[in-house]
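Two folds, back to back.
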Amino acid sequence: MTLYIKNMVCRRCILSVAQILEKNGIAATAIALGEVKLALDITPTQEKSLRKDLEDYGFELLDDQRSMLIEKVKTLLIEEVQSGELPDDFSLVKFIGHAIHRDYSAVSKLFSEVEGISLEKYFILQKIEKVKELLAYNEYSLSEIAFRLGYSSVAYLSSQFKKVTGLTPSAFKANHAGKRRPLDEVHRR
C-alpha cells in the first residue's frame, strides 16, 4: 500500500512522517518526499489517527488521484531544484513527460487548476528560493549559482530574481539573507 502525503518538502519532513508512522504503529518499507510505502494495509482506526497526527504537523494525507499527481509533480520539481544541478538545456516538458509518463499539457493544465499557479511559475519560484538559499550560504558566486540552476546567463537569473522578489540578487543578499519562506509555501503570496 502506498500513501501520498502533501507538504513533504525536505529531509526533516521525512523524519517527522517516520515518527508519526511509528507513533501510530504503522510499518513503512520506504519513505520519500510525498510518498510512503507501507508493509501492510492500515486499519480505518489507524488511518483516522494518522490523518490527525499528520495534520497536526502541517501534512495532509491525500485521497484523490488529481491531488496525488500534483503532489508527485511538486515533489519531483523540488527534488530537481534542490539538487542544485540543473543543466542549462533543462526542459520542463521533457522532465515531466519522462518522470511521470504523462502528457505535459494535460499535467500543466491540471496543475494550474489545482494550485492556482502555472507549472512554469511554480518551477521558477522554486528556483528563486534555491537562489536565495545559495546567496544566504555565500558559498557560490552569482555566476556559479546561475550555472548550477540552469540559467543561460547571470543577467537572466538577475532579471528573473528581480521580477519575482522585487530586488536584485545583491540587494537581497545585503538586506534579506535568511528571510526565506518554507518550500511548501513558495506558491502562496
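---
second:
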Amino acid sequence: MSTPRSAIVTGANRGIGRAIAERLVADGHRVASIHRSGTLPDGVFSAIGDVTDTESVDAAFTLIEAEQGPTEIVVANAGITRDQLLMRMSDDEFEAVLNTNLGGAFRVARRAVKSMIRARHGRIVLVSSVVGLYGGPGQVNYSASKAGLVGMARSITRELGSRNITANVVAPGFITTDMTNALPEAQQEAYKAAIPAARFGAAEDVAAAISFLSSDDAGYISGAVVPVDGGLGMGH
C-alpha cells in the first residue's frame, strides 16, 4: 500500500486522465486536476487552467497546494491532436500540438519539482503514446511531441534522481475511448489485427501502470518507458 500523497493529474475531466484520477483516489491519494473545462470524478479537486500558459499553470498549482499540500505526484496527461499529412500540415497545427503536449508537460513538471526538491520525494509520470516511438501517418506533430517526453523524463532523471524524484513515461496504445469507438468497424478490426493481444486496452489499464509508478514501490524505477499497448509497440 502506497503512502497517501498529494497528486495532480492534468486533464482528468475525460478519457484516460479521468481513469488515472479515479485510480489515484482509490489508492488513497489527495488528487486534483488542472483542466480547461468539464466535470471531474468524485473526490478530485478542480483547478481550471491551461497548460500552454505558465501563469495559468502556476496559479492552478498555488490553488491546489493551498487545498491539499505540496505536490508529491504529478501526471502530465493533457494532450491534443491536429492530425494532418506532412505536406499539408500548417505551422499552427505543428506548434499547437508541441506547445500543449510537450510544452505543457514541461511547464507542469517545472512547477511540480519546486515542492518535490524540498521534500526530497517526487513522482513524475508523463503520458506519451505508442505513436511516439512507433510513428503514425498524419501524426508528425503528435508523434514528435510524444517522443519528446522520453528525452524530458530521462533528463529529469539525471538532474533530480539523487533527490529521490523519479520521472517515467507511460506509452498507451489503442485504448477504448470515444475516439476509438467512433472508428468504422473495419478500421477497428484492422488495428486489432496488428495488436498481439488482439484487443484494445481500457483506460483502467493505463491507470494501473501509473498507480504503480506513483507508488513507494517504484522508487528505483526512473527514466523508463512503460508500454501499455497489448504488445503493439513494445516500448520501441
